From TrEMBL:
Signal sequence interval, chain numbering: none
Protein's UniProt name: Putative deoxyribonuclease YcfH
GO molecular function terms attached to this record: DNA nuclease activity; hydrolase activity, acting on ester bonds; metal ion binding
Binding site for a divalent metal cation 2: H138, H161
Similarity-based family: Belongs to the metallo-dependent hydrolases superfamily. TatD-type hydrolase family.
Coiled-coil intervals: none
InterPro entries: DNase_TatD-rel_CS, Metal_Hydrolase, TatD-like, TatD/YcfH-like
The protein's enzyme class: hydrolase
Residues at which a divalent metal cation 1 binds: H16, H18, E102, D211
Gene name of this polypeptide: ycfH
Superkingdom: Bacteria
Length: 268
């Protein structure tokens, strides 16, 4: 695509999606085309198990603009153990793996035992710091425990993905040096506190994401989410912050590239 064809369009980055999931079967190519048409030049494809992390890295190796990560989602933490850790570590050590995660704590659904989630999250934090890779953190109804564990690993780099909390809760993560990524949830009318956080987040720490196929932003709410819809979230956050969408797209894409160590360009 030429620069002219991109004129007037956003150039943005979906900092978190799971496009390897079955929801995109039979629609993968068109999904990528729709993302391109909305100016989504890059995507971070986030693994949630050893298996899907392999798939994420494989997809990224075959599609320009996609970048894979490796980690064990807190919902999957029951699989935490030596065999899983060995597999994940080998994946994270690959040159093309851009982050550790997603990992974290989910006390809302609590699909895996708390002890397993805590052990897994600690392991991911330690690995991220050891390898100087960013960690992608999932935290739901677990703010106190999440920030406590993050503080056990000073110097760790990373992002609070799908940040749904308010401005006060955001502060300690910023102090810990983390980036904050806003998802479609920020566009929901009931998300007042989260919208305040989106206005207050410093320019150099702000990311946007879809978390596709989950959490489609307004006006797609309730449908399958996809990376193209990242533009809707970006425009919403730009309006909240009183800035031009194109400028915010550039800022957030640059932040994503800095965090994950990527070169920006057409199909970054
Ligand atoms: Zn996710």
């Amino acid at each position: 695509m030429t620069a002219d064809a991109n004129a007037g369009k956003l150039a943005l980055f979906d900092s978190h999606c799971h496009v390897f999931r079955e929801e995109f079967e039979g629609d993968f190519g068109p999904m990528l085309d729709r993302a391109s048409a909305e100016g989504v030049l890059g995507m971070i494809v986030v693994g949630t198990t050893a298996e899907t992390s392999e798939v994420a890295l494989d997809l990224a190796s075959r599609h320009p603009g996609l970048h894979g990560t490796a980690g064990l989602h807190p919902h999957e933490a029951a699989a935490f153990g030596d065999a899983t850790c060995a597999r994940l570590r080998a994946l994270v050590e690959r040159d093309d793996c851009v982050a550790v995660g997603e990992s974290g704590l989910d006390w809302f659904k609590e699909w895996a035992p708390r002890e397993a989630q805590l052990a897994s999250f600690r392991w991911h934090l330690a690995l991220a710091r050891e390898l100087d890779q960013p960690i992608i953190i999932h935290s739901r109804d677990a703010h106190d425990d999440t920030i406590e564990l993050v503080r056990e690993f000073p110097g760790v780099r990373g992002v609070m993905h799908c940040f749904v909390m308010g401005e006060e809760e955001m502060k300690p993560y910023l102090e810990a040096g983390l980036y904050i990524s806003f998802s479609g949830i920020v566009t929901f009318p009931g998300s007042r506190a989260n919208q305040a956080a989106a206005r207050a987040c410093p320019d150099d720490r702000l990311l946007v994401e879809t978390d596709a196929p989950f959490l489609a932003p307004v006006p797609h709410r309730g449908k399958r989410n996809e990376p193209a819809f990242c533009a809707d979230t970006l425009r919403f956050v730009a309006r909240e912050r009183g800035v031009e969408p194109a400028a915010l797209a550039q800022t957030t894409a640059a932040n994503t590239a800095r965090l994950f160590g990527l070169q920006l360009g057409a199909r970054a």
